[in-house]
Amino acid sequence: MTPPLAAAPSRGLLARLNGAHHRAALNGFLVIVLAHWAEHLVQAYQIWVLGQPRPQARGVLGQFFPWLVSSEWLHYGYAIVMLVFLFALRGGFVGRARTWWMVALALQFWHHIEHLLLLWQVQSGTMFFGQKVPASILQLVLPRVELHLFYNSVVFIPMVVAMYLHLRPNRREQELMSCSCTGHRAGNPSLAAHAA
């Protein structure tokens, strides 16, 4: 018989985040992601419904702190936070949910590269691709607001699919799970740790 979660020995931060605290960590991460989505959706509303010029469409926080919208450090910081959470919480996922989570992680890794290119240009004062302003690779074909809505969507959708499947595992997946998300410790913790 497998011991209850509370009796499990402490095995380090990542083990706890992907074990006893996986559900809480996922919920905290989801709050961050939804707050970021709200900013982008408000900005899109300001542009396409209210007809504001793009430089004045700054989302919610940007109305009070305009420098936030133009700070590449902020955008890059969020990209890193997303990447770190997607990487750190992957060990709690098994089966179909893990596949979808890894898709979100791979897409976020590319999104992070795009932000790194923007940050590099701002910090160095050297613009790439013959542009007069910092530009990422896909920004050469899509305007920045639309591009970030696209990136957030293609990362968010597989992430949500992964969470949905994770909370509704089939019998085989439930046997492999060792996190708090199903309400009990269902499988062998060494199997889930090995999957990470």
UniProtKB/TrEMBL annotation:
Keywords: Membrane, Transmembrane, Transmembrane helix. This is Uncharacterized protein. The lineage of its organism: Bacteria, Bacillati, Actinomycetota, Actinomycetes, Micromonosporales. The chain crosses the membrane at residues 73-93, 100-120, 149-167.
